[in-house]
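Sequence only, no structure available. Ideas?
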Amino acid sequence: MDKTFQLGWEEWAAFPKLGLPAVRAKVDTGARTSALHAVSVEPFGPLDKPQVRFIMHPVPDKPEIEVVCSAPAVDRREVTSSNGERELRWVIETPMKIGERTWPVELTLTNRESMTYRMLLGRQAIGEDMMVSPGQSCAQGALSYELYKDFPRRRPVKRPLRVAILTREPNNYSSQRLKDAAETRGHVVEMINTARCTLALDAADPRVFYDGKPLPAYDAIIPRIGASMTGYGMAVLRQFTMMGAYCLNSAEAIGASRDKLYAHQVLAREGIAMPVTAFAHSPKDTNNLIAHVGGAPLVVKLLQSTQGRGVVLAETKKAAESVIDAFRGLEANFIVQEFVKEAGGADIRCFIVGGKVVATMMRQGEAGEFRSNLHRGGSATKVKVSKDERLSALRAAKALGLSVAGVDLLRSSVGPKILEVNSSPGLEGVERTSGKDVAGMIVEYIEDHVRPIARKTVRRKKAVAAKAAADTAS
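Reply:
I predicted one. Tokens follow.
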């Protein structure tokens, strides 16, 4: 027969899946249900599988310590408190550890700010082999609030996240793969059309509205911003950052990668090899541009080009002069680049997630086509990259500040040369070629790096209070 598990009239509990290492609980056999302190309780996700996110202040006399928790909701029920008040509460189920024993318990979420104990352990959570000793305190040993001394810098616990994918193409392969990968891991994903967002700038309470309705606080944002929406998309991304969301790639990094001239200046500053590049404003400098990159053949590339559009190979000096004059006539911004002939119309895409090359592929253009983009009929095959190629790709992504990037490089006679760094790389080609779950790796990276929104909440409360005081004074 198993030994009876002793509980005192108060105990220290831990909730590993909520990220709570120590919660002081009052054991009350007179109460049927158990309750956990929670504020800013917010349901999210599909109606048939709702999740609940809430903020917990585990240390009664230190409200500045906040832990953001998420868990699946199992019910929403009316609970009558000891003073007779009725309250409709969300109910979650999560593992609880007291002493050496761990078991699942149902917890109702309610504001216990004025209570000494942040948790009430009711009889429903007390097993048949457990006995409560009213005269004993912490029969299973004591923990300490010192466990929170590193919060919120401690690596966040894996929890259900509310994620937004910022995209105007919710049905394309990349968006759907990211959505499926996140939902498979228990997260809730919403597709947000960048163009339909409205920004409300307020120091106390910055918000993003979608079709006139305020968007909730998201744990993470995955930006899939098209080139035509770069400027506005960066503004939307900055707004979500102010609201406390973790953004997979920052607005600044995306802007740097989209400005091809600036991106090449950054790479040059870091000593990263790339095709020789030239840029000029005056029409009188056409010959100088051609000379700077070693003459024809050369490549003329629009600064806003994507998927190979706006990229022209000029095989003779005369052709180069004609293309440059044509682009100038359209008042287009462009750069001129050295043509790396030995690459043979092929480039290598290194897909980077969190400072690691997680997948690679070689893209080969069609016969007679120097552009290798898959959107232009190019083909993709598996490829093993060298140490130098891997290092060059990683340095390029790091120089531009990108956590996730597709780095395109050429194999030249003098080593790898970075061609371009993409801040919203497509997943279809690299996943099908490499056979790797790149979308899953991206979601795992988000799980490891999503930050608590607690500090932002405290700042917002202070800002709101300060604004209210100023309004009253005026």
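The two ends are 73 Å apart (CA to CA).
Hope that gets you unstuck.
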